[in-house]
Each structure stands twice: as structure tokens, then as C-alpha cells.
């Protein structure tokens, strides 16, 4: 008897893979995954500050809405001061729900990646036709607004069905971010070719840590710095990726931003030319060009 298997990639220890460098001879690629999300009022899913009551759940809806009204602008100021790029993970309904937010990331030259229509829904529970329709609708809106199609996709709520990689590859996506199974990019098989999996963090992610595990920002910042120290040392042996997943309504709170600023500033100060501060899309593009 064999365990059920996804069939998307073969097991290969990270210690037995080809060596390569990131641009400029860097060994550690660091990217910020900025989740730009919107939610329906009185309906659908959403992270909770506190246990929600009956709908309309004003407490949690308003807490999330703070991110687009206030928190994101505080975070953008920080990224501008530090000169750090972002991968903006965009719900396509954001263009209507919070006009100006996605445009601010576009103006910085940040990558705009697909992130479904809204984080009030999951795609993994849909049938294939409906899921393909969700991907097509979100992709078309982002393409129309940005003047180019997104290269990368993160499913809302990290949700995939058994055919999601197939649908994304067939929709023209080069990479997705839904799997946290590695510290390097991994090629995944699809029914029509292959798609790259760029690792997206679930440990260095403010929702699992702050909302889920009830840690606070000082500890989260320490986790970021501890991971950076270990990965930077390990990258002497092999090239690695370090993603940091952020949400505007969590890290955009004033008492948390100071700790995020501390972590990012310390990382920059200790990079010593060995770190590539970049986007998930640039990581994917570089890896595509390696021919590995």
C-alpha cells in the first residue's frame, strides 16, 4: 500500500540540488508578500481580531477595513524609507473596494500578483468550471488595470483544489505561492506543462503568528531576524529564499509597525552584499532563466 500522492513533484532533498547564485552573486533572496485584501460586509470569510458575533460582524469587518484605510499607507511609508520592493498580492475587487491602494504599489514599481477576487471566499471548494472562472475574472481585471497580466498567483486563504496548478498554468501563470514546502523554487507538473512553485511563508506570516498563535509584534520581529540569521548562514552552502507575509490590518497597526521596521532595518544592515531584496516575480523570472 502506498500513501496518496499529489504527483506534482518528486522528492529531492535540498542538499542534493544544483548550485546557483541569485543576481549579483547574492545567496539569499528576500521578498515581502504584501496582502491587499477586501471583504464583503456581513457575508463570507475573514480573519478575526476577536470571536465574531452574528452578521453583520462589525467588529471584525471594521478591523480589516482599517488596513486599507490607514495601515497600508503606514506600511508604504516604511517601505519607501527603506527602499524595499514588494510583491503586492491583490484581490481583484480591491480596485473597487479601496481605490488608490493597488495604484500606490504600481507607482512604486512593485510587482502586482493575483490573489483571487476577495479573501471572503476560497477557490479550493469550487468545481473546476467555477474555479477556472474565478481565476479568469481576477486575472482579467488585474490585466486591464495594470496593462499587463500578473505572472504569479496566491490563492485566497492558500486554497487549492486538485486541479488548481493545472488551471493556473493554462491561464498563463508562471508561478504560484500556495505551497510552503521548501526554501527554493520547485517545478510542479501540470496536465499541460509545468509551473513554478515559489515558497510562500506560513511561519513568517503575521496571520498564523499574531492571529493564530497569539504572538505579538516584538516576538514576530525576533522570529524574522532569527530566520534571517540562520538562512543567511545556510546560504553559504546553497541559494535560499526567505519570504515574509504581511497584512495591512495586522502589521499596519502603529504598535506593530515599529517592530517590523526594526526587523527590516536590521536585515538590511547585516546583508553585506549577500542578500537580494526582491519580489517573488523576479525570483521566478531568474529561476526560469537558469534552465534547472
Describe this structure in words.
The chain has 292 residues and is an alpha/beta fold. Helix content is 41%, strand content 15%. The chain contains ten helices and nine strands. The chain has helices at 58-82, 94-97, 101-108, 128-146, 164-170, 206-212, 217-234, 248-251, 254-269, 280-290, and strands at 28-36, 87-90, 111-114, 152-153, 175-176, 186-190, 193-197, 240-247, 275-278. The strands form two sheets. Strands 1, 2, 3, 8 and 9 form a five-stranded parallel sheet that branches. The longest helix is centred in the first third of the chain and has 25 residues, at 58-82. 42% of the residues are buried. The model has no long low-confidence stretch (mean pLDDT 96).
Describe the protein's topology.
Layout lengths: L27 E9 L21 H25 L4 E4 L3 H4 L3 H8 L2 E4 L13 H19 L5 E2 L10 H7 L4 E2 L9 E5 L2 E5 L8 H7 L4 H18 L5 E8 H4 L2 H16 L5 E4 L1 H11 L2
Parallel strand pairs: 1-2, 1-8, 1-9, 2-3, 4-5, 5-7
Antiparallel strand pairs: 6-7
Helix pairs in contact: 1-3, 1-9, 7-9
The poorly predicted ranges are: none
- Report the major sheet: 5 strands, parallel
Shape: globular
Query: What's the assembly state of these chains?
Result: single chain
Q: What structural class should be given to the helix and strand makeup?
A: alpha/beta
Key attributes of the depicted protein:
alpha/beta; 5-stranded parallel β-sheet; 41% helix
Describe the structure concisely.
By secondary structure, this protein is of the alpha/beta class. It contains ten helices and nine strands. 42% of the residues are buried.
Amino acid at each position: 500500500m502506498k500513501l496518496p500522492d499529489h504527483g506534482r513533484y518528486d522528492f529531492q532533498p535540498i542538499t542534493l540540488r544544483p548550485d546557483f547564485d541569485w543576481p549579483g552573486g547574492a545567496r539569499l533572496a528576500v521578498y515581502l508578500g504584501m496582502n491587499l485584501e477586501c471583504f464583503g460586509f456581513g457575508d463570507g470569510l475573514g480573519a478575526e481580531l476577536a470571536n465574531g458575533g452574528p452578521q453583520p460582524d462589525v467588529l471584525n469587518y471594521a478591523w480589516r477595513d482599517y488596513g486599507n484605510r490607514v495601515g497600508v499607507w503606514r506600511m508604504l511609508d516604511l517601505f519607501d524609507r527603506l527602499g524595499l520592493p514588494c510583491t503586492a498580492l491583490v484581490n481583484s475587487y480591491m480596485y473597487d473596494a479601496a481605490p488608490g491602494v493597488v495604484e500606490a504599489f504600481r507607482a512604486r514599481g512593485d510587482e502586482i500578483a493575483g490573489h483571487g477576487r476577495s479573501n471572503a471566499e476560497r477557490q479550493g471548494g469550487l468545481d473546476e468550471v467555477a474555479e477556472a472562472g474565478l481565476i479568469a475574472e481576477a486575472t482579467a481585471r488585474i490585466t486591464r488595470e495594470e496593462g499587463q497580466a500578473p505572472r504569479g498567483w496566491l490563492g485566497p486563504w492558500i486554497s487549492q483544489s486538485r486541479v488548481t496548478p493545472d488551471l493556473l498554468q493554462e491561464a498563463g501563470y508562471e508561478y504560484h505561492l500556495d505551497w510552503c514546502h521548501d526554501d527554493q523554487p520547485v517545478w510542479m507538473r501540470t496536465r499541460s506543462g509545468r509551473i513554478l512553485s515559489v515558497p510562500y511563508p506560513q511561519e513568517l506570516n503575521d496571520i498564523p503568528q499574531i492571529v493564530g498563535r497569539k504572538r505579538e509584534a516584538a516576538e514576530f520581529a525576533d522570529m524574522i531576524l532569527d530566520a534571517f540569521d540562520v538562512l543567511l548562514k545556510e546560504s553559504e552552502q546553497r541559494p535560499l529564499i526567505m519570504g515574509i507575509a504581511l497584512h495591512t490590518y495586522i502589521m499596519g497597526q502603529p504598535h506593530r509597525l515599529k517592530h517590523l521596521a526594526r526587523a527590516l532595518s536590521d536585515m538590511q544592515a547585516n546583508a553585506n552584499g549577500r542578500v537580494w531584496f526582491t519580489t517573488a516575480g523576479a525570483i521566478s523570472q531568474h529561476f526560469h532563466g537558469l534552465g534547472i
